[in-house]
Write a structure and sequence with these properties.
7-stranded mixed β-sheet; 4-stranded mixed β-sheet; 358 residues; Spore Coat Polysaccharide Biosynthesis Protein SpsA, Chain A; 11 helices; alpha/beta
Length: 358
Amino acid sequence: MTDNGREMSSELWRKTLLPASATLQQAIRSLNETSLQIVLVMSSDGALLGTLTDGDIRRGLLRGLDLNSQIETIIRRNPLVVPPQLGRDTVLQLMRANKIHQLPIVDDNRSVVGLHLWDELMDPHERANLMVIMAGGQGTRLRPHTEHCPKSMLAVGGKPMLEHIIERAKAEGFQSFVLAIHYLGHMIEKYFGDGSRWQVRINYLHEDSPLGTAGAIGLLSPRPEAPFVVSNGDVLTDIRYGELLDFHCRHGATATMAVRQHEWQHPFGVVRTKGVDIIGFEEKPIARSHINAGIYVLAPAALDVMNAGEHCDMPTLFGRLQEHAERTIVYPMHEPWLDVGGVEDLKMAQENHPTNAQ
């Protein structure tokens, strides 16, 4: 994980890496410097050999080792590890079941790319990363509800959809928000102000004309120094924005798109043919594909392919990045998610959040 605004998640875990030839003295120094209570022992080719804790060192000293002895003989080999894509809830279940507070994250080559910590997963630290929320759309498919109200300000569960998004992100440590506004933007600005009511910082990007789902980020000033989250203002979800950000950083991507699996069942039986010959039948087959969930993480470098004030949609931005050989990846979602694009979607959202729904 790099540049995601938290010291542990960016570089501190790297200080836990030691070769098997390291001494007990070096391991003790690493434990003291990081306070992460673990040393990750690496092979010469960069793969994880095992782990080491303060208890392992003490047991080694009791066996007659001294501070100049190599740690190789006291390594806990083949420790429990997880891949980068594993979600927070599953990670917590594994840590709880195995009674561990640190869990290395490794790639396909068993190289360490991060370290899960129980305390951070349970109590996320404040994140310096920016969150940009696109709230400038006119919501034409939601009329008449949006004739005098911005789409993202429509009430669900007694509060605007935009407030749900901000509160969820704040609960994960996000403190700095930029709201891109256009249609009836003054209503959004009046309601949220500078964000102090929610104990966050809110600034605004004013679109003189609609700039698409990505265009407004070309107006960001100053330019973000770390990866930032972008969300559509009409997406209600239980996604963990911090986990999405960490996933992006672990994979070294320039742009990450959250995606949902969508299933569609063909209403008819399908006949498979070769020429005029029938070679098989499928009774109402189910097609599965990934759809754009309207939530993203972008590295600052993604802004290099944008021009301030130009109309640009997110698929266009991702396409440009691919043309420049930048890495673009997907983050598969399994959490509840609803894109409130039409009247029926709004009704569904209000039924699922019935408290004082309007």
